[in-house]
Design goal:
The protein contains 12 helices and 4 strands. The protein has 305 residues and is mainly alpha-helical. The chain has a two-stranded antiparallel ribbon with strand order 1-2. The protein has a two-stranded antiparallel ribbon with strand order 3-4. Strand 3 and strand 4 form a beta hairpin.
């Protein structure tokens, strides 16, 4: 493990130095891409999407007042954040210097810095997603409670189950009014939540790619794999004994370490990432209105055993 760690660190630094030269030689092009992306993707396109949703998209008639409130509120938040980011463009040469210096410390350092910059640049998307997800989840809870009211049942918190319950006429009347309002507002809430949930899902895919790259560069058993190919006997796995009946001799053979053992730690790490970013899990969380979070960096790196 000691030699493999040295190999991984050296290769990380070599790739980082090469990436630093790439950043230095293409500094002008990258700065232009950042500026265009800030103006286009992070601001204008999302504002255009919100305006499109506010104008009955594809014949879908949303609640006019609530849709106007959503679109104007989110557009104001996006505009303010885009204005703040534009004011930070004068520090772009300093950011280039920071990125180039971080690349000298290794490709993993540059990748981690990119993920941090991505989170900072898309903070307004995350804020809009949090607001829409909280409203969506509360409307789901409200509709579920009103559905229990119509069935004559009530959720028992102490026993964690739904029990029958007798409601008064005024309670049923109020529940009917609230259910009508919730059903009328739910399509508008769901549409805006779905838009920002898809944006969040796209960012989660970028985070998953970056974290997978970090795991690959930090845990890949490069030295052990090269030693397994070049000189397998230097990686002993198990011994096998065979006896020859003719000469009454016991022959002991050393078998090299199998690839499944070499990649065991890497396999466990892949399972953790796959379990967290599984499509069915993410889809279920979106339908439930739960907040999609990235994989915690502290739990990515599992210790050697």
């Amino acid at each position: 493990r000691y030699h493999n760690t040295l190999w991984v660190i050296l290769n990380d630094i070599i790739i980082g130095v090469a990436f630093r030269f790439f950043l230095y030689q293409n500094r002008t092009i990258l700065n232009q891409l950042v500026t265009d992306g800030l103006e286009g993707v992070l601001a204008h396109r999302m504002e255009g999407m919100l305006l499109w949703l506010d104008s009955w998209p594809a014949g879908l008639k949303l609640n006019t007042e609530l849709s106007r409130f959503y679109s104007q509120g989110f557009i104001g938040l996006i505009t303010q954040w885009a204005t703040f980011l534009r004011s930070c463009l004068r520090f772009l040469p300093t950011l280039n210097l920071i990125a180039e210096t971080a690349s000298l410390m290794g490709m993993t350092m540059a990748t981690s810095l990119f993920l941090d910059f991505l989170g900072l640049l898309t903070a307004h998307f995350y804020a809009c997603y949090l607001i829409s997800s909280v409203i969506y989840r509360h409307i789901l809870i409200l509709i579920g409670s009103l559905w229990n009211l119509f069935r004559g049942k009530r959720y028992n918190i102490l026993r964690n189950r739904t029990d029958p319950w007798d409601y008064e006429i005024d309670q049923l009347l109020l529940g009917t009014i609230l259910f009508t309002l919730a059903a009328h507002l739910f399509p508008t809430i769901w549409v805006y939540y779905a838009v920002f949930a898809l944006v969040r899902l796209s960012l989660i895919a970028l985070y998953a790619t970056g974290e997978t790259l970090l795991a690959f560069m930090n845990h890949f058993p490069l030295f052990a794999l090269m030693l397994r190919i070049k000189d397998p006997q230097r990686l002993p796995g198990k011994l096998s004994c065979s006896r020859t009946h003719a000469m009454l001799l016991t022959i002991t053979q050393s078998h090299p370490l199998p690839l499944s053992v070499i990649f065991a730690q890497y396999t466990r790490l892949w399972r953790q990432l796959l379990q967290h970013y599984h499509p069915f899990r993410l889809g279920r969380w979106i339908l439930q209105g739960r907040v999609l979070a990235t994989f915690t960096h502290g739990t990515v790196y599992i210790p050697c055993q």
